[in-house]
Amino acid sequence: MPTAIAVTSADLALPPQDERTMPAVVLAGLDRHPLDHALTELSDLIESYGHVVVVCSAATPEPVVRRLYTLRSLLESDRIALLRPELPPLGVAVLGRQLRQLASCDLSPGVLASAGRLLAHYIHAGAVLGSVARLDRVPVGLKAHAKSWVPGSQFAVLAHPEPQLVKVAPEVTLKGPEFSTWLLLAKGQLPGDWAAGLGTAWQAQGVRETALPAESRAWWGTGRMVEFCAHLDDLSVLYQLVTSVRQSSCHWCGLDVIGDRCVFCSAVPPVHEPPAPRALEPRTPA
Questions:
Q1: 186 and 92 in contact (C-beta within 8 Å)?
Q2: Is 274 within a domain?
Q3: CB atoms near residue 177 (< 10 Å)
Q4: Range of the domain at 153
Q5: Do residues 145 and 212 both lie within one domain?
Q6: Which single residue of 29, 58, 189, 285 has CA 20 to 30 Å from 227?
Q7: What pTM does this model have?
Q8: Per-residue pLDDT of the chain (286 residues; tens, 9 = 90+)
Q9: CATH number for 168
Q10: Statement to judge: residues 76 and 109 lie in one domain
Q11: Cβ within 8 Å of residue 56, ≥6 positions away
Q12: What is the β-pairing status of strands 52-55 and 25-26?
């Protein structure tokens, strides 16, 4: 039984990458539907799939996130994992699709869910912005803030894995991945020529386009943007990455996991205090 990969809006459910990619479960309108309706929907998912991994971004509205935690608590279930990586919305959508690709493989639910934290390290996500005046998720200097008020200024920002910010110019680029990737673009209210040029600068295998996620405007602080994301796209490479990491059993719920935290029950390995040194007994005079 494959693990269900769910997202909180339809624009985070990217089209399938191949014929093996599992469809995304879209949990839309969680904060608008009656609680019992959402409870039934999630309960039916668990009944059908066994385990559910919900992927959402840091820009997902707080009422939606609170509803997810409420539902998880009411169901008293450790078969629901909430994955909220520090990625921009397009990067979150890409990560969700990667998990949907892996969901067709022979990975246990715990390993699949914790693979999200591993795969996020290989995602290079950023945007070309018409203004950084309201950008608060990436460090921005005073000079860049001042330049952002100059008409026509554009900035290229890499938010993950390492923050970078440059002023857009023909000879300027961003430091990209040192491995083969595909580049995905989502155009907002700016032309995408410079962002598409990253495909050449980063030696990407190709450039694809998709719709801009609705949460991108809130994440980046502007709608004048083009969001981009370089990512691994081959299922065999993703599978090899995940299966090459040592697995262990969660000491709390018993699921096989990779990394230092179970995404389903949030347990971390117990810290064993070193035994206290034994006091030396006084020597008895001979």
A1: no
A2: no
A3: 17
A4: 124-231
A5: yes
A6: 29
A7: 0.89
A8: 689 999 999 999 999 988 899 999 999 888 898 999 999 999 999 999 999 999 999 999 999 999 999 999 998 888 999 999 999 999 999 999 999 999 999 999 999 999 999 999 999 999 999 988 888 888 776 555 555 556 577 999 999 999 999 989 888 999 999 999 999 999 988 888 999 999 999 999 999 999 999 999 999 999 999 999 999 999 999 999 999 999 988 888 888 899 888 888 887 765 544 554 554 455 555 4
A9: 3.30.1180
A10: yes
A11: 7, 8, 12, 64, 65, 68, 82, 83, 84, 92
A12: unpaired
And the tokens for 272? Answer: 């064993």
Collect contacts of 140-147 with beta carbons under 8 A, ≥24 apart.
140/165, 141/165
Q: Amino acid identity of 257? A: V
CATH number, position 115: 3.40.50
User: Rounded distance, CA 251 to CA 69, Å?
Assistant: 22
Same structural domain for residues 204 and 70? no
Q: Six-digit token pair at 240?
A: 């090899």
- Look up residue 65 and give its amino acid: V
Please tell me whether residues 216 and 74 are part of one structural domain: no
- Give the C-alpha separation, 248 to 146, whole Å: 50
CB 3 within 8 A of CB 50: yes
